[in-house]
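Memo to structure team: turn this sequence into structure tokens by end of day. - J.P.
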Amino acid sequence: MKTRILIIPAAVAILSMSSFAPGVAAPNPAKQLTYSKQTTAFAFLRTHPNGKGITATWGMATASRVLEFSVQRTYEDPTDTYAYWEDLAVLPNSARRSSTYNDKDVFPGIISYRIVALFDDGSTETSEISSVRIRSRR
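Reply from structure team:
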């Protein structure tokens, strides 16, 4: 019996595969799939060019426990665990479902952004990563 484990950003799936005799139907794959979805406080993170800069907009599924947000960017590979993430700003929670930050000081290249939320119990949660490619300064 072979076991395959697939890790998906929003869920972890464990699939079991085995060989079957000819003419024997495989079991229902829905019964073989087990996953647990990770909960996240972030509903979305979007980035887009805006004039000579980049605008990052993010939304929260629940913003009541968030004290502040830290906006971070990197010009390096965002999947690299050793990538340097520069802190651009720390913004207090405005108790709205979405927030915006305008990064006016960008250079050409692929720029990746993420948001770190600081909760009232001292824990943090990091958003997904959103990237923008800037070809040249305007």
